[in-house]
C-alpha cells in the first residue's frame, strides 16, 4: 500500500523527485477597455412590426388620412370601388405624389385595389390579372 500512496503523492506533486521550476512566460496585458466601451450586443428580435392599413375611401377628402398613414410609415391597401371613377383617379394621383415624395411604391393588386407602401416596406412579386377581360372593364368604368 505504501507504493500506491507514494505514486498518489507524486501525482499530486508531493513526491521525492527534485523540484524543477519551469521558466514563466511574461504576460503582456492588452489594451484595457475604456470606461464607456462595452461589447456590442445585438438582439435577434429587433425588427419592428410593420403595420398594414386597409382603407376604403368614399370621397377624395379621405385621401389625406391615407397619406398620413403612409407618412407614418404604414403600408395601405386601398379599395377604390366605392368612389366614382374620376375621384378614384384623383386619389391615386394624390397618393402617387405622396409616395414619390416618401420614396415608396404603388402596386395594383386587384380591380380597383391598390397597395401603397412607404420605403420601409419591401414589396416582392406581383399579382397578375386573373381574367383578361377584368382590366378592360375597369377602364370603362
UniProtKB/TrEMBL annotation:
The keyword ATP-binding does not apply. InterPro entries: Cell_div_SepF, Cell_div_SepF/SepF-rel, SepF-like_sf. Signal peptide: none annotated. It is found in: Cytoplasm. It holds the Pfam family SepF. Keywords: Cell cycle, Cell division, Cytoplasm, Septation. Its main location: cytoplasm. GO terms for cellular component: cytoplasm. GO terms for biological process: division septum assembly; FtsZ-dependent cytokinesis. Homodimer. Interacts with FtsZ. Belongs to the SepF family. Cell division protein that is part of the divisome complex and is recruited early to the Z-ring. Probably stimulates Z-ring formation, perhaps through the cross-linking of FtsZ protofilaments. Its function overlaps with FtsA. This is Cell division protein SepF. It comes from Kyrpidia spormannii. The lineage of its organism: Bacteria, Bacillati, Bacillota, Bacilli, Bacillales. The gene is sepF.
Amino acid at each position: 500500500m505504501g507504493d500506491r500512496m507514494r505514486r498518489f503523492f507524486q501525482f499530486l506533486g508531493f513526491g521525492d523527485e527534485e523540484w524543477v521550476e519551469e521558466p514563466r512566460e511574461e504576460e503582456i496585458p492588452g489594451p484595457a477597455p475604456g470606461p464607456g466601451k462595452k461589447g456590442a450586443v445585438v438582439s435577434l428580435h429587433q425588427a419592428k412590426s410593420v403595420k398594414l392599413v386597409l382603407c376604403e375611401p368614399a370621397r377624395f377628402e379621405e385621401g389625406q388620412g391615407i397619406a398620413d398613414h403612409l407618412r407614418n410609415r404604414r403600408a395601405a391597401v386601398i379599395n377604390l370601388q366605392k368612389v366614382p371613377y374620376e375621384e378614384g383617379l384623383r386619389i391615386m394621383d394624390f397618393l402617387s405624389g405622396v409616395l414619390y415624395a416618401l420614396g415608396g411604391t404603388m402596386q395594383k393588386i386587384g380591380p380597383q385595389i391598390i397597395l401603397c407602401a412607404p420605403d420601409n416596406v419591401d414589396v416582392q412579386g406581383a399579382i397578375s390579372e386573373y381574367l383578361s377581360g377584368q382590366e378592360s372593364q375597369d377602364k370603362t368604368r
